[in-house]
Structure formats: structure tokens, C-alpha cells
Design brief:
It contains 6 helices and 7 strands, in the order E-H-E-E-H-E-H-E-H-E-E-H-H. By secondary structure, it is an alpha/beta fold. The chain has one domain: Domain of unknown function DUF4159 (Rossmann fold), CATH 3.40.50.12140. A 7-stranded mixed beta sheet has the order 2-1-3-4-7-6-5, covered by helices on one side. The protein starts with 64 loop residues before the first strand and ends with a helix. The relative contact order is 0.16.
């Protein structure tokens, strides 16, 4: 991890010293539903963060919750629910704790949509949903969760087929609601960071190569993958309850920040972290 120079300008940021970035170590094993141990995998980032909150904040923290799903698989339209974890979830959680006044749980959660504890988590994250198919029980559970104040972020899916699949699955959840392109005037883009464009975060290999080629999009998918879309669904009061970040990979921006100076400064620092922090700030203030 590296200092977030741009992020230090935000009003809500708390002061940190350079030594804070050096206090890292590999995570140990823990409960099976913890973000850091939900599956065995190589951690791509050079280090992953660890921190503790005072005991008084044990039940007063934001917790990153990732959704486990059984459908899909590694196919043309999408990948798996565990893509980029645990590094992406841990790194974003740490940056949120580091750069804002929020207290953040160092042990995120992995849940299914039908988990009785789902309502305890205001934010849930689904990655690589291009081949996702909800069960009828999941449809009902997700509808209830979102209408009761929850928020869902879809991330890291590319091309027309993947989008068509996500749109069709959410039509099952809300037959009477349609996705809309989120305008940059939306309050989600205004604080804590002012976001003026919908930047594309590529996979790290393409991100590093883009400094020479100028190309960031993933071309192995159907349709135009050059254009980033942030599409939303709102409830009857206008609260944004679903955000789908399409043709971009914010999770890689969080996960792979420690592997390349170019990738870090151009994609993690400028795009993925500001957007992720703004989304969670929106969720926690609405």
C-alpha cells in the first residue's frame, strides 16, 4: 500500500503519518465467513492490512459484506463471486477507515442473500455477475433487503451479454423498475470526493500496458467495452439502492494497488478508491 496523495485533500480525512502505511502484515486464519479466509487463494497485493478498533466500537462499525452465489462460474459472461478477495475487500475497508472518520470492521463478511443476518449489513457487494442467476428465494430476499434500506453494488462485468444478464435478473427482483444511468450531478459523486467523470479501472495487466498503448478496456467480451456505465435503481423515495458499475473493475483497483506505481496512481488512487469511498459514504448517510 502507498500514500494516497490525492485523498489527503478531502475534508473528512483524518491525519495519518507515513509510518501508518508500513504497519502491515499477512492475515491469519479465522472464521469461515470472514472475508480474509473465505477461500484459499494467493494474495496478489504485496501486503494486506490489519487494524483493531477500540472495544467500545465493536458493534458500531461499517462492515464490508460480499455476497456468495452458487450460479454462474467461469464463463464467457462472468466469473466467480470470490474474484479479487480477500485483498480488495480488506484494502478498501482499510482505506475507508484511514481516510474518513468511520470506524470499519477489519473482518468483513461473506454472506448469501438468504442469510438471516443479511439485514444487519447496509452494503453488499456482488462481483462478476455476468453469469449470475438468482433462485426464487434469493429474488425475494434481495427485494426485501433493498426495500428495507439495503444497498447493492455490482462490479467487474464487461460487455453486452453480461449487462443483459444483470438487467434481466434485477427485473425479476423489481419488475416495475428500470435501470437508469446515474448522472454526474448525483450526490453520490459530490462527497467526500468530487468525482467529475466515470473512469475505467482495467485489470492490472491491461492497466500497466495502457501507459504504452492508451487502451484500458477488456476486449474479449461482446459489444462496446470502452464506455463505463454507472447504472442505478432507486426506491420510491429516490434513495439509490442498487449501483451497477459496468465495463470497469473497481475490485482490481482495490486489490492490486501495491503491484505497480503506474496502476496505483492512475487507477487505484484516482478512480477506484474515491468511487468506493463515496459509495459507502452515500450508503451510511441515507
Amino acid at each position: 500500500m502507498k500514500p494516497l496523495r490525492h485523498l489527503l485533500l478531502v475534508v473528512l480525512v483524518v491525519a495519518v503519518t507515513a509510518s501508518a502505511f508500513a504497519q502491515w502484515r499477512r492475515r491469519g486464519r479465522g472464521a469461515s465467513d470472514s472475508i480474509r479466509t473465505a477461500r484459499e487463494l494467493d494474495q496478489h497485493s504485496t501486503t494486506t492490512p490489519t487494524w483493531e478498533n477500540p472495544a467500545a466500537f465493536k458493534n458500531d462499525v461499517f462492515t464490508f459484506a460480499r455476497i456468495r452465489y452458487d450460479s454462474g462460474g467461469w464463463g464467457r459472461r462472468g466469473g466467480g463471486w470470490a474474484t479479487d478477495m480477500p485483498d480488495s475487500d480488506l484494502n478498501l475497508s482499510f482505506r475507508l477507515q484511514q481516510m474518513t472518520s468511520m470506524r470499519v470492521d477489519p473482518d468483513g463478511r461473506v454472506l448469501s442473500l438468504t442469510d438471516p443476518e443479511l439485514a444487519d449489513f447496509p452494503f453488499i457487494y456482488i462481483v462478476e455477475p455476468g453469469n449470475l442467476s438468482f433462485s426464487e428465494d434469493e429474488v425475494a430476499a434481495l427485494r426485501a433487503y433493498l426495500l428495507n434500506g439495503g444497498f447493492l453494488m455490482f462490479d467487474d462485468f464487461w460487455g453486452d451479454s453480461a449487462w443483459d444478464n444483470v438487467e434481466a435478473e434485477m427485473k425479476r427482483v423489481f419488475p416495475d423498475r428500470s435501470f437508469f444511468e446515474l448522472p454526474l450531478e448525483h450526490e453520490l459523486y459530490q462527497r467526500p470526493f468530487t468525482i467529475k467523470s466515470k473512469g475505467q479501472v482495467p485489470a492490472i495487466d491491461q492497466g500497466v500496458e495502457s501507459q504504452f498503448s492508451g487502451i484500458t478496456w477488456e476486449q474479449q467480451h461482446d459489444g462496446d467495452t470502452r464506455t463505463v456505465h454507472h447504472r442505478g435503481l432507486s426506491d420510491d423515495q429516490g434513495r439509490l439502492m442498487v449501483l451497477a458499475t459496468h465495463n470497469t473493475d473497481n475490485g482490481d483497483g482495490w486489490e492490486r494497488e501495491g503491484e505497480s506505481d503506474y496502476y496505483f496512481h492512475n487507477f487505484s488512487e484516482k478512480i477506484a478508491y474515491p468511487l468506493g469511498i463515496n459509495i459507502i459514504f452515500y450508503v451510511m448517510t441515507h
